[in-house]
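User: Hi! Is it possible to get a structure for several chains at once, not just one? Here's what I have:
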Amino acid sequence: MTAAPPSPPGPGLGPPGPDPAAPERPPALEAIGIVKRFPGVLANDGVDFDVRPGEVHALLGENGAGKSTLMNILAGLYRPDEGEIRVDGAPVSFGSPRDAIDAGLGMVHQHFTLVPSQTVTENILLGLRRPRFYLDAGRSEGEVARLATEFGLRVHPKAKIWQLSVGEQQRVEILKLLYRGAQILILDEPTAVLAPQEAEELFRTLRAMTDAGRSVVFISHKLTEVMAIADRVTVMRRGRVTAAGQPAAGVTKRDLAQLMVGRDIVGLYDKAPFQPGDVLLSASDVEADNDRALPALRGVSLEVRSGEIVGIAAVAGNGQAELAEVITGLRPCRGVIRIGGDVVSNRPPKHAIKAGVAHVPEDRTGVGSAPNLSVADNLIMKRFREPPVSRGWLIDDGRTRTLAEELKDEYAIAAPSVDTRARLLSGGNLQRLILGREIETRPAMMVAVQPTRGLDVGAIETVHRLLLERRDGGAGILLISEDLDEILALADRVDVMYEGRIVGSFDAQTADIQQIGLLMTGAGGDEPGDEGVAGAGDLGPAAGPDVAETEAST
Amino acid sequence: MTLRIEPRMSVPRWLSPAATILALVVALAISGGVIAFVGGDPIRSYLHIVGAAFGSVGVISDTLVKATPLLLTGLACTLAFRMRLWNIGAEGQLLLGAWGASAVVLFPLLPAGTPGFILIPAMMLAGALAGAVWGLIPGALRALLGVNEIIVTLMLNYVALLWIQFWVFGAWSEGGFQQSEQFPPEAFLPRLTDFASAVPALGGLTVHLGFLFGVGAAILVWLVLERSRWGYEIRLVGDSPEAARYAGVDIKRLIIVVFAASGALAGLAGMSEVSGVVHRLQDRFSPGYGYTAIIIAYLARYDPLKVIIASILFGALILAGREIQPSGVPAMIQGVILFCLIVADVFVRYRVRLVRTGAAAGAGAPGGSATSEA
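Assistant: Yes, the chains can be modeled jointly so their relative placement is included. Here is the combined structure:
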């Protein structure tokens, strides 16, 4: 009853781009002419989108292209200003995520919503009305286990959430939706938090779900993944659809990249010749514990010279996050870390800042920025102690604003003004803010952790360019990333970390990707997995009968 | 049709002040209902309250006298709350401040006959210092050991109360009464009425210098919070302690310092009460200014300049309370105002919609959306 669709319902219920092969059934989900305005931004400008039963539909687009807005509308978090949503051909109106899930639509967000101290089953039951008072744990656990095996979601129903890896937690989120009977699952950049093997497992799960007639909307920035998993692809750019429901088989990565950013992307960078200077950062035999007081660094020694980018290649959770924290003084350690002779380990973070260490942290919203402070306040986080921003014990408001305006222009931070709260910025803009702030201090040493995670192709290029500029300007850069392509494109040297140790060191020019991949996964572990080719086959013997059973029962 | 409560994605700029004003109006309406229920005439009561608080220069002066301790303690809360340090011990810090100021006269720390221009600053210093020490205890416990500051500050309020009683019933008791002897006139904060000989119109106006201290402190706290490096650190920690640590802020030190400063402001309120109004230390001289301060800081949305307005409003309520005895009406109004403010806050962050029950199958009770996504 919200608003009448601007376009007439039209003859038939077919999707906007009807092709002869279209199924008889109406699309499982259809969004027609969705318009959503935010102050100063037209986030969705007449967007059409449809999902067929049993398909994986990838949604591609740069940050700020309007993907998340569209998905939040479909998941009941936002209400569209105009347009219509239909589920199985029938118009629906969602006032809350609960309405959406009642209609069979569920979304897995990038940030999970699980209670750490409760078990998997308890989390899945949370918020349901069904067990009204008495919780028959045994029965529910049985149901959860059945669902889990049906779709290859390996997770123990009795495990507590805090004991689980990020990949396992994601499985719980998916189980939560399946348990509530979701027919259409929206996954917002699901592989961003996963190790390659976990991603493959996720893809097998997605296949199992589509084989059972459910549909998946897959938001991603990674073209390789999209090509590997999607049946159809929709590309968005600046609030509009630039390619609607193209069969994935018929497009190339290059096409998609162009549709996303509207121009060709340069794959490799013309790097200035490698001219390393003196040793800037030296760490010897550094040991540290993680937040759970378990050893995270077990004797790490490394050096970074000026004019050099050293890449740390590692799968998440192998100590690279802790390495960044001990260098920047955020985590205590044993051993010694020096920046140009000055000991920075076990000193307050302020000391590292004064020693000229810039830090692009992994967590942009929690650590790298203060979400409710203004863009201007966020831009002075590292220099509010010094003139010209400070004047004695006062902060010069005028000069702060001038500086902020300059940085906003120089680093193309798209925000209505420097008074805008940082949390209203999109991921790419926030990262430009953080990078701009860190680079403006002309740091001798930069520690960049996952600097491009979750960013779109255009923003990634900007970030890479900025890092290379700093390198050519004589800074030493420690680049910690899970994206091997990124490391190989930028780094001069690559150190591979595994279980808190550096297990290999390579010259980036001559590095053997296979070898690095092996070391990252703990050498001789699995065979170097070629991306998800095998599909559900790997799971075959175990999953087969279960799938057959459900098909029979439905 | 059912009610749905769902989180707002963005909050319009006008909404928060509008909700505050609406909350005040609703609170007065509810309180009016109660007054009517017990047989009173709400309109007349309110008019009487307004008259009693603002009806003449004399009562306005009295209102400002009541507003003074509220202003200073309200600022104490504001400073700490901005950093999300829940100092609800302004009451205890006020009492200690009063004790510290009294100690200068009663021990005596300065010899009798010390002129006012030395004695008053000394009392201010002693009051602020004693309040700061009382704030340091929860501050240090929180910073160094992670002890919950709410519990410590609340408990210390009772300790402070007993501390005052220990002195006014004991060493400083005036003839066995629960009060000290009166301070010498040099220890009085100057009042407007003191200048009546020169300007007769000022006669009977009891507003004292403490109010000016309060206004000055409000401006100072504003300046510190909005325009100083220190205030920047406070706002940073208040918004995101992780980001503050990353920016090189020494959070532990800041907690201790802010707690001490907060205590000093509340201590100054105590000094201003004994030196400007009571002119002696006595048991129960504060009707809970330090607790009302929490409401005031909240009502002012932690904005030091708005604390001035809020404390005058509450000063008026307290003053009017004497007028419309013997009921607890002003206390009730205060309580209802706080409740309405908290409810208004919910409406600022969430919106309520009417939904056709048919739209979503099996939609039962409201309050569904438990998830709030960034």
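DSSP finds 17 helices and 22 strands in chain A. Confidence is low (pLDDT under 50) at residues 1-22, 524-554 of chain A.

User: Great, thank you!
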